[in-house]
C-alpha cells in the first residue's frame, strides 16, 4: 500500500479515534519504559512512577495524536492538490495540442484560400480559351464525314482539349465557391473505378476490405474519384518493385474531435495504405501544401487538391507515415441520409431543335463559337457582350413580339452585369424566362445549385456541341 493510500485512510478516520489510538499507544509505551526503569534503578516496580507515567502519557499521547492527525491532513491535502495540478496540466496540454492542430488547419486553409483567388482567375480565363477551342473543334467535326482524314485530326484535337480541362478542374478545386455537386451514392463503385483506372497494367495490386452494409455518402463522384486517383498514384509510385495497396472502407461514428476538425456524426472512413518507402518526417506537415513535391516531375497539386476537395465535402483527411514502413491515408466522408441515386448515363448524341436563343458572354471568341454551334443544331442565335446589352435586346424582342425561347448567361462578367444580376432583372420583365447559366469558374454556388437561383439549366465550360445541344433540348422541353 502506497503512502498516499495510507494518508487517505487516516484522513477519512474520526479524529477522536486517532487520539484514542495515540493515547493507548503512549500508555503502553510508558508502561514498558516505567517498568524497565523501576527495575533498573530500584529493583522493583514503583507505583508512583507508573501513575506519573500514565498521566504524562495521556497528555503527551493526546498532543502527539492531534499533531499526527493534522500532519496527515496536510499530507493528504498536498497529495490531492498535486493530483489536481497534474490533471490540469494534462488537460491543458491536450487543449494546447488540439489548438495547435486547429491552428495548422487554419494556416492550411488560408494558404488554399490565397491560392484559390489566383487559381480562380487563371481557371476563368483558361476555360474561356478552352471553350472557344472545343466549341469550334466539335462543330467542325460535325461538318465532316467520320472517315475524312481531317476528322481524325479534329478528334485528336478534341481529346487534347479535354485533357487540358483536367488541369483546369484542379485549379477550380482551390477556388472559393467551387462547390461540389452532391449526390447520394455508394463509395464502393468510386473506389473500384479509381483503382482499376490508376493501377491497370502496373505491378501493384489493390486488396479491398469493404463491408456489405457500408453507408451511402453525399459526394461529387468526379471530385472524390480524383482524390482516390491522386492517393493511388502516389502509392503506386512509392512501390516501384510492386506490392499491394490495402483499401478499406467502414462505417464510423465520430464524436466531437478537434484534431480531425469535423463535427460529430456518421461517417464513412476510407483507408488507403501502401507498403512503400514512406514519407520523411520533416515533409509530413508539408505534403498538403500547394506546389510542394519531392518528385522531380511532380506538380505539387495532387494532395493539395485532395485536401481541398475533402474539406469542401465537410470531411477530413489524415496521413500517417514512417520511412521504410509505408504510408496510410484516412479519409472521412459524411454519410448520406438519402437513398442512393442512380447516375444517368452520359449521352454523346446531338440534339437538334429550333427557336431563338440569346447568348450573353464577355468573350467574343465564345460568343462566335456558341452562335455557330446553335446554328449547326437548328437554332437562331443572337449575341451580347454583357448583362445590360442582353436586357436591352430582350426587351426589344418582347416589344416586337418575337421573344427569345431561352438565354445563355455567362455567370462572371468582369466590370459588367453578370449572369445572376441579369437573370434577376430578366425575371422582372418575363417571370417565365428560361435561362441557362454558363461558367468555368464562379465565386458562387449558383453553378452547383442552379435551380435555387432561378436558372433552368447549367453548362460547365469548356463544353462541346453535344453537351450544349442536350442541355438546351432539356430546358426547352421541360
Task: Give an overview of the whole structure.
With 478 residues, the chain is α/β, with parallel strands linked by helices. It has 3 domains: 3-101; 187-334, Heat Shock Protein 90, CATH 3.30.565.10; 356-476, 3-Layer(aba) Sandwich (Rossmann fold). Helices cover 52% and strands 15% of the residues. The chain has helices spanning 3-12, 15-41, 47-142, 149-174, 187-199, 221-237, 302-312, 364-376, 387-399, 419-429, 465-476; strands at residues 183-185, 204-209, 217-219, 243-254, 265-273, 316-322, 326-334, 356-360, 380-384, 406-410, 435-439, 457-460. A 5-stranded mixed β-sheet has the order 2-4-5-7-6. Strands 9-8-10-11-12 form a 5-stranded parallel β-sheet, sandwiched between helices. The protein has a two-stranded antiparallel sheet with strand order 1-3. Helix 8 (364-376) links the parallel strand 8 (356-360) and strand 9 (380-384). The model has no long low-confidence stretch (mean pLDDT 79).
Quick description:
Helices cover 52% and strands 15% of the residues. The chain is built from 11 helices and 12 strands.
Q: Which residue ranges are poorly predicted, with pLDDT under 50 across at least 5 consecutive positions?
A: none
What is the element string, with H for helices and E for strands?
A: HHHHEHEEHEEHEEEHEHEHEEH
The assigned structural class equals alpha/beta
Quickly give the CATH architecture of the largest domain: 2-Layer Sandwich
Query: What is the average of the pLDDT values?
Result: 79
Distance between the termini: 83 Å
Strand content: 15-25%
CATH superfamily of the largest domain: Histidine kinase-like ATPase, C-terminal domain
Largest sheet: 5 strands, mixed
